[in-house]
Each structure stands twice: as C-alpha cells, then as structure tokens.
Amino acid sequence: MLCDLRAGNKYRVQFYLKSPTNILDSIGINFTPYDFLFDKNTLQGIEPTAYVIDQNKPDPNNHGWQKVTFTYTANGGEKYLTIANFSKRDINGETGLSNETHFFAYLDAVSLTPINPDEKLCGDWEKARIAIYQIDDRHEFFERYVRFYRSQNKIAPPPKLSLTRIYKSAKLVLNDELFITGRGNLQNNGFSVLDNFCNNYQAQSVDYAEIGSYTDSTGNIYASDEISTQRAALIKEYVRRKFKIEEKFIKVNGSQKGQVVVGTSKPKRRTIELLLYLHE
Questions:
Q1: 241, exposed or middle or buried, with CB in 10 Å at 0-12, 13-18, 19+?
Q2: 137 and 58 share one domain
Q3: Among the three residues 105, 126, 151, which one is the final residue of a domain in this structure?
Q4: Which residues are within 8 A (CB) of 59 and not within 5 positions of it... i.e. 6 or more apart?
Q5: Residue 1 lies in a domain
C-alpha cells in the first residue's frame, strides 16, 4: 500500500483477471497489516478477506480478461493487499497449456480507490513508493529475503505510511455591511466574522484559496472597482498570514461588475467571497 486507509471508509478494489482453466473461483484478495509472505499459517488454512465469487460472477467458460470489482470497508490497519489462489485443496487436471503442469491466473490493471470522491492519496505517496521499491531484496533476492525472516521467526517491518487525505471546501461571504462604507477596511464585526470562520479550520491544512471580488451597478464604476480591489487584497493578506500559505496558492478573481446570481437577472450586491480548499 502507498497510504494508510481510513477505518470505516469504503474502497473499491478493481482488477482484470483471466485464466486458461476454471480456477477463478479460488482467487481472492487479502488485506493484512503484515507481509503475506511471512504468514505462519499454511495457504489452505488462510481465509482471505474475500473470494472473487463473493462479489463477482466470473464466467468459467470465458478465458479472456474479466473485470473483477470489490467494495471493501477498511479497518485502518491495512499495509498490504495480496491477490492469490486461496484454494483449500490441490488443483489437478489439464492446465490448458501445452507441456505445462502449472496452473496460471493473470492479473492486470489493479487499482484501489476510495468511494468518497473527496478522499485522495496521501501527500507523501510518491516518497512511500520510492522507499518500498528501493528494498532491493524483494526483487533480486526474493527467496533469500523470505528465508532470512522466517529463519529469525520474524516478519519484515511494514512500511510507514500516511493517511489518505480528505479534501473539503469552505465558503464565506462578506457582505458590504461588514466593511467601512466606501473603503477597503473591515469593520470590527467584519473582522470577527472572518476570524471565527478561519479559526474553524486552523487545525487543518489549507492547500489553496480563492477570493472573489464582486461589485454592483451603483456608484462610480472606477471607484467601486478600486474599493473591491482593496477589499480583496485585505482578505488575501489575512489568509496568507493566518494559514501561512504562499501567495501563488491564493487566487483573486478581480472585481466583476454586474456579476449575476444564477437563475436571476439581478446583479450581486457588493461582496467578497472567500473559498478555502483544505484537507484534514
């Protein structure tokens, strides 16, 4: 795994599977907190998390690629996902391959994705991937790697992973009444509204912010645009300091005179809208 899963959250396991013989009903998936290679139980004694046939109906007469999909509820301790033949007895008969005594099942396009669209990869997944693949013993000295840990009656230490991220957005609308009339500064109650809103997200990481500056059709166009620009700049500086994020991650949509409300023909009132994109 590249990230730790969130306990109680649902994930979709998907891959393509094919075999020249009718053995797909014995193929299963197994989530474990340790490397499956070091399980002390015999293969026949291991009960996988699920068999292919638990949530799928593979066609035994179809020897081409078949899509397999599972919905899995995490317990939060998963580090490894194993896809294997978990048959409780030996497989015998014809292999379907000339001069071949081994039975084969082929896998392709394996993926694990959260059902919640707001849940994404952890921020350091690339670092975890590099660290895992740099364990050369798992590639070049596979049998020696397994034999060493088994001789020590130990299991290889699992990788240190970070939790997946849950991304959210939060919106605040600052109406004209919260600003000093005709100026770019907030009134005291305006600062209180802004503070209370942002304080709710201090414990989370703000990745990006958007500030929308809207004007109405009253007053001098140039003066109104200038006031809106000043107000947007004030909120931008506040957000930058509050959440300690770089300016390049704060986008300001400049004064947009006569911006219409969806479904109406009325222009928006003079407002500043703050939209935060963040993760836990």
A1: exposed
A2: yes
A3: 151
A4: 66
A5: no
Together in a domain, 98 and 15 = yes
| Low pLDDT (below 50) residues in the chain | 222, 256-267
Residue 3 lies in a domain: no
pTM here?
A: 0.69
Domain containing 41: what range? 10-151
Nearest CA among 170, 234, 177 for reference residue 208: 170
Q: In this structure, what CATH number is given to the domain that contains residue 234?
A: 3.30.1330.60
Beta bridge partners of 209: 250, 276
Q: How would you classify the pairing of strands 10-18 and 27-32? A: unpaired
The conformation of residue 267, written as its DSSP 8-state character, comes to B
Q: Are 117 and 74 spatial neighbours (Cβ–Cβ below 8 Å)?
A: no
| Distance in angstroms (rounded) separating the CA atoms of residues 48 and 139 | 25
Contact 159, 132 (CB under 8 A): yes
Provide the 3-class DSSP secondary structure of residue 258.
coil
- Per the structure, how many domains does the chain have? 2
pLDDT tens per residue, range 171-187:
999 998 999 988 889 99
| 6-48 tens-digit pLDDT | 999 999 999 999 998 888 888 999 999 988 888 777 777 888 9
How is the beta sheet containing 119-120 ordered, strand by strand? 119-120, 165-175, 271-279, 205-215, 250-257
| Same domain, residue pair 105 and 66 | yes
Do both 22 and 95 map to the same domain? Answer: yes
In a domain, 171, yes or no: yes
Distance CA 120, CA 167 (A): 7
The verdict on residue 158 lying in a domain is no
- Strand 205-215 to strand 250-257: parallel, antiparallel, or no bridges (unpaired)? parallel
